[in-house]
Amino acid sequence: MCGLAMRARAGWQRWESELGAGRLLGAEGFIAAGAPGNTDALEATTAAMADAGAAFSWLDGSEINARIPFVAAPWDAGVFDPLGGSLRIRGALDALARRAVVRRCEVVAVADDGATTLADGTVVRADGVLICAGVRTSALFGPLGERFAPHTRFTYEGAEATGAACLSAPEGYGLPLGGTGRWAFGQEVPDPAVVRALFPSLVPVSRIDCVTVRAPWLDSGGDGWTVARRGHVVGFVGSNLMKFGPLLGELLAEAMLSDTLPSDLVLN
Questions:
Q1: Residue 51 CA: distances (Å) to CA of 4, 80, 224, 232
Q2: In whole angstroms, what is the distance from residue 82 CA to residue 75 CA?
Q3: Nearest residue to 160 via CA among 174, 146, 140
Q4: Residue 147 confidence class, pLDDT cut points 50, 70, 90
Q5: Nearest to 15 by CA among 70, 115, 91
Q6: CA torsion sign, 59 to 89 to 268 to 210?
Q7: How far apart are alpha carbons 78 and 65 in whole angstroms?
Q8: Tell me: the pLDDT tens digits for 33-74?
């Protein structure tokens, strides 16, 4: 996964150039913070990064505070990834949409031969169909071993939020929203008291309620995906995928143009 993430990072840089969309991958860096007194997960992370040839450095609590100035850090250790950063998703999606023909419709069924039935009764036929529809993927493709759980992300404002590092911690994950001066923090179960304790100077301004994936094929951090083929149809579902976007685009396109799944797409 670390090696694939590094390849995907090069893809984001390529998209910045090819799409003319400006900066898409921030240079803030990424901090993985560990529970106090327990560095086992961090040591496993650094071992994987070392195997992939990725740069990293260890941080103590004061160094975490220096990179996220508004956090009252309860963590005594963390790992800093200098190549990580916050993605500019809206800019990327807008730029990609300008390069493609987008047709919006509701799909109700997909047959093994690629015949796709729409809600209005129209049948669209294709040599290959990719089903990558989030919570609807299993309904259209078949079970892929996933389930979905609630997830909430709050957006905060604060004078020190711009340029702060991205964060993954036992309490949740956080990231700056580009250069907006806003910071987002997500949790499976929203706990305002925890967030106030961690970020006492930030003020909440909005909230997004969505879902997250739970599956045995995800790694300990909740990253990963699974893919399967039935006839002319490929089903794909995963979690925390946007950082892999450019690479996944290439791999899924390759899957559509051949009779086999690319080895890099099959993680398990």
A1: 12, 16, 18, 36
A2: 19
A3: 174
A4: very high
A5: 91
A6: positive
A7: 11
A8: 988 878 888 999 999 999 999 999 999 999 999 999 999 989
